[in-house]
Amino acid sequence: MQIVELRLESPERAAEFCAYTIAREPWFLAELARWMADTGGPLEQMDATAESLVPLWEWFISFVDADLPGLPADAVWALSPVVDHRLPVRACAAGERVMHYVRLVLEHYEPEAQWTVLGGTADYAHFQDTGLPWPQRADGIQPWEFVLNLASHVGEGTARFRQATALAEVVRSVTGTTLSATSGDERGASVLASYLSADLGPMPEFARVSPVVRWWAEDDAGHAPARTAPEPLQGGFFEREDRVLAAGSGRAIAEERDDRLRPLDVEQVAAALTAIGFTAGDGAVGAQHLLDEQPVSVHTEDLQATAEPACHRGSLRRLDIAGPLATDQGWERLESTMTALARQLRARYTDPDAFD
Question: According to the model, what pLDDT value does residue 232 have?
């Protein structure tokens, strides 16, 4: 999934987006509660336990299939994929409401899971390239991009992610916790139901309009903050450029025409990802994970990244490695393994913009 690159080198922008996300949460949760109530959804089961993620996602799939009743027709996901000049992506806009509920689930298990800006030093605010302020766990794992990625896949009709357990499985996978649909928690009262009667008043302008809308206008007018050289994060980490593994033309990559890319040996790709440290759920990356277009991730002491496969007619055509944070050693492991793999596959592994 392609993400609009937000120019967030400015700590002020980072702090503003974080504040906006925190401010909108009560209204977004209230919207989710109303949608469930209006569509006969599992509102009373939304008790912030891992078990609640299964009926939540089952309902969300049906909600998308019904054309998202209650979501305004012009609803915009501020971090929408690059599709025809930022057209609204309604499934992801609805997914943002689900994202706030998933934060409540993590908070149920880990009270420190709050919205925050990742920081490397006192004067440097770091965001991943999606621009989201993650509710960061102590070990640095950030699951929120996966929630929106799931919503996008559901909107596209991807079968793998239209399973009722998909959300629970992905949250469990990317958080590295024991969260699962069978955790055996004692079920409690719904944390969403109370929002139906909450007197929140009108949503303030600051929470209603994403600052990204203004930033787009500023950037298009040439007023974007100047880019600075990457600064080291805690533990010697650096933010690195995204990478793509594919066999074909740069034009096919730019136009997202996966059907024009040559198939990649999925077994070799799965083995290479496992060797680097990527996992799918609790285990090694398998060929079927990639053929199901399941994002896989690596969270080791020297490397954090996500690999997103793209398939066409039952074969792997492209692998995007996004958001790498790595020490010099972790980056070398990733680059050397994937470069060697590309040679074996007669493919290319490089920055998407440099692909030809």
Answer: 52
What are the residues whose beta carbons fall under 8 Å from the beta carbon of 122, sequence distance 6 or more? none
CATH number of 235-354: 3.30.1400
Q: What is the dihedral of CA 220, 222, 223, 224, to 10 degrees?
A: 70
Q: Where are the domains of the chain?
A: 11-213, 235-354
- From the list 193, 242, 233, 21, the residue with the least C-alpha distance to 115 is 21
**What are the φ/ψ torsions at residue 204 (nearest 5 degrees)?**
-65, 155
Which among 99, 127, 158 has a CA at the least distance from the CA of 3? 127
Read off the pLDDT of residues 37-81 as tens digits, 9 standing for 90 and up: 999 999 999 999 888 999 999 999 999 989 899 988 767 665 543
Asked whether the beta carbons of 126 and 195 are under 8 A apart, the reply is: no
Tell me the C-alpha distance between 171 and 241, whole Å. 25
Instruction: Kindly report the pTM of this predicted structure.
Output: 0.57
pLDDT of residue 79: 55
Residues 6+ apart with CB under 8 A from 268: 341, 344, 345
